[in-house]
């Protein structure tokens, strides 16, 4: 064991030691590069980690979306693909898995999460209505706005403070929700858009009590609650650990109970459900389902495949069942926490509490000498790649873009995200990552920042180019 000793995930869960609850059957070799090779690759990529080729990356922590490793059972399921145009056997397997674990009656498969968001927004929103949500997610809000809605953030204030230790920073502020009902009238609220482990707040969970209260308040006003269940499995673990009365309940039980406080939901299966592509939308209301079924054939595909191959639906059905196993979820969130606790023990600044899927380094406090115009979070992502070939992502001033007057938007949060794919890397990879961040931290005073040399008009963080100062 290395110097990081007493911080193993095993001890954290009150056991003697810990190892990943899987063994490796097939390997994908990683590129081990020299510093010179990384310097050339990073320069070629304009110091933007989105523009690196994945073959030049050693440990890829850009995203946890579609990057999971499938199990041998999922791969076996791929061979059971029933590629019938209509009524594929795999659709019914998926329908059963979703019903058993999320409790929703009627399922519509979609090619990925945003396909589901598109359909729900088209059908459930009348132009001019409001959609309250516990902080926004990029594609979710965009589809709601394209359908003519105004998004209203009703998350608790604590979510906006990276240092606040509230155990359920994803919670809805009931007073804000009630105030919206009173201000615009409940008939002008399309639905409440509730999300589990809120990504933009740092992977922060919603409590069971809050979901119950939100549903009761919405029902009182005749408004439905739809759940972005993309990372709900991870949310369920936080409930098990932190909420009274749930310590002895399984992840599967908690998930099912949570969903019972909503009227339907959707998912990007590229996250919790352990597949590389896929999503679904599921509701309890028969009439709404029929409307959605009318729309899916226009935009995705027939209602029994929704833009997916039969084999993908089979892998998703199996992945859904694997994703709710307690041992799996503990290993997944535990790995994120292991990395976070190691970094915290060296006083490296990050969003707290540690979330479910990623570590968000606080680049503002990391590079206290760099003004935001020198892109501290982008600089940190570049330095991390240079040091060790680890790829992370900027979530700060570059991602925020410009305002109507053409000025940089200056978000309070200037973060560099290390996102952990599921079942892909071992604890040893987490040690290597932690030590790379530490090396960059120790050399922080030498960092000079970056200047932007090319700026695309839309979503600039994807393609912007930089040079070192
Ligand atoms: C990824 C994601 C989506 C969008 O799903 P895609 O599969 O990328 O289209 C929606 N909501 C949340 C919370 C997500 O993380």
Which characteristics define this entry?
five-stranded mixed sheet; Aspartate Aminotransferase, domain 2; binds pyridoxal-5'-phosphate; globular; 469 residues; 40% helix; disordered N terminus; three-stranded antiparallel sheet; 12% strand; Aspartate Aminotransferase, domain 1; 17 helices; alpha/beta; 2 domains
Please summarize what this structure is.
The protein is an alpha/beta fold and 469 residues long. Helices cover 40% and strands 12% of the residues.
How is this structure best described in words?
By secondary structure, the chain is an alpha/beta fold. It has 2 domains: 2-60 and 326-468, Aspartate Aminotransferase, domain 1, CATH 3.90.1150; 72-323, 3-Layer(aba) Sandwich (Aspartate Aminotransferase, domain 2), CATH 3.40.640. It is built from 17 helices and 14 strands. The strands form 5 sheets. A 5-stranded mixed sheet has the order 2-8-7-6-5, with helices on both faces. The protein has a 3-stranded antiparallel sheet with strand order 9-12-11. It is globular, with a radius of gyration of 22 Å. The two termini are 39 Å apart. The relative contact order is 0.16. Pyridoxal-5'-phosphate binds at residues 65, 112-114, 137, 139-140, 195, 199, 228, 230, 268, 270-271, 279.
Chart the SSEs and their pairings.
Blueprint: H1 9-12, H2 35-44, E1 59-60, H3 72-78, H4 89-102, E2 106-110, H5 113-124, E3 130-133, H6 138-146, E4 150-153, H7 174-184, E5 192-195, H8 208-220, E6 225-228, H9 232-242, H10 251-260, E7 264-268, E8 279-283, H11 286-299, H12 310-323, H13 326-345, E9 358-362, H14 363-366, H15 376-388, E10 390-391, E11 393-395, H16 397-400, E12 415-419, H17 427-442, E13 450-454, E14 465-468
Parallel strand pairs: 1-10, 3-4, 5-6, 6-7
Antiparallel strand pairs: 2-8, 7-8, 9-12, 11-12, 13-14
Helix pairs in contact: 2-15, 3-12, 4-12, 5-6, 5-11, 9-10, 13-17, 15-17
Pyridoxal-5'-phosphate binds next to α5 and α6.
């Amino acid at each position: 064991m290395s110097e990081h000793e007493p911080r193993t995930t095993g001890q954290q869960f009150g056991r003697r030691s810990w190892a990943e609850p899987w063994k490796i059957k097939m390997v994908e070799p990683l590129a081990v590069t020299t510093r010179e090779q990384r310097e050339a690759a990073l320069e070629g990529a304009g110091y933007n980690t989105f523009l690196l080729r994945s073959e030049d990356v050693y440990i890829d922590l850009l995203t946890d979306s579609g990057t999971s490793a499938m199990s041998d059972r999922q791969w076996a399921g791929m061979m059971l693909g029933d590629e019938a145009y209509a009524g594929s056997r795999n659709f019914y397997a998926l329908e059963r898995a979703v019903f058993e674990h999320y409790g929703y009656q009627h399922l519509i498969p979609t090619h990925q999460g945003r396909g589901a968001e598109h359909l729900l927004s088209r059908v459930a929103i009348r132009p001019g209505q409001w959609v309250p949500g516990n902080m926004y997610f990029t594609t979710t809000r965009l589809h709601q706005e394209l359908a003519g809605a105004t998004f209203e953030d009703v998350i608790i204030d604590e979510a906006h403070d990276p240092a606040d230790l509230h155990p359920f920073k994803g919670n809805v502020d009931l007073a804000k929700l009630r105030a919206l009902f009173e201000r615009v009238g409940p008939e002008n609220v399309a639905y409440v858009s509730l999300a589990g482990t809120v990504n933009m707040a740092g992977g922060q969970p919603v409590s069971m009590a809050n979901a119950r209260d939100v549903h009761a308040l919405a029902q009182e006003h005749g408004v439905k609650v739809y759940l972005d269940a993309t990372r709900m499995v991870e949310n369920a673990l936080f409930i098990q650990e932190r909420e009274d009365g749930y310590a002895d309940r399984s992840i599967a039980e908690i998930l099912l109970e949570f969903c019972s406080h909503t009227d339907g939901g959707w998912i990007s299966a590229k996250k919790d459900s352990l597949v590389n592509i896929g999503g679904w939308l599921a509701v309890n209301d028969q009439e709404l389902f029929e409307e959605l079924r009318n729309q899916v054939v226009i935009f995705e595909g027939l209602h029994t495949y929704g833009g997916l191959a039969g084999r993908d639906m089979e892998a998703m059905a199996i992945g859904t069942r694997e994703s709710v196993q307690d041992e799996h979820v503990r290993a997944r969130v535990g790995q994120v926490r292991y990395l976070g606790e190691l970094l915290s023990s060296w006083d490296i600044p990050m969003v707290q509490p540690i979330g479910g899927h990623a570590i968000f380094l606080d680049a503002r406090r990391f590079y206290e000498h760099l003004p935001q115009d020198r892109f501290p979070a982008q600089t940190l992502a570049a330095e991390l790649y240079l040091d060790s070939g680890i790829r992370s992502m900027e979530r700060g001033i570059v991602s925020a873009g410009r305002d109507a007057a053409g000025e940089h938007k200056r978000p309070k949060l200037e973060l560099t995200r290390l996102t952990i794919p599921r079942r892909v890397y071992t604890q040893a990879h987490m040690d290597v990552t932690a030590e790379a961040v530490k090396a960059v931290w120790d050399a922080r005073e030498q960092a000079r920042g970056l200047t932007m040399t090319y700026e695309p008009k839309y979503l600039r963080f994807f393609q912007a180019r930089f040079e070192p100062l």
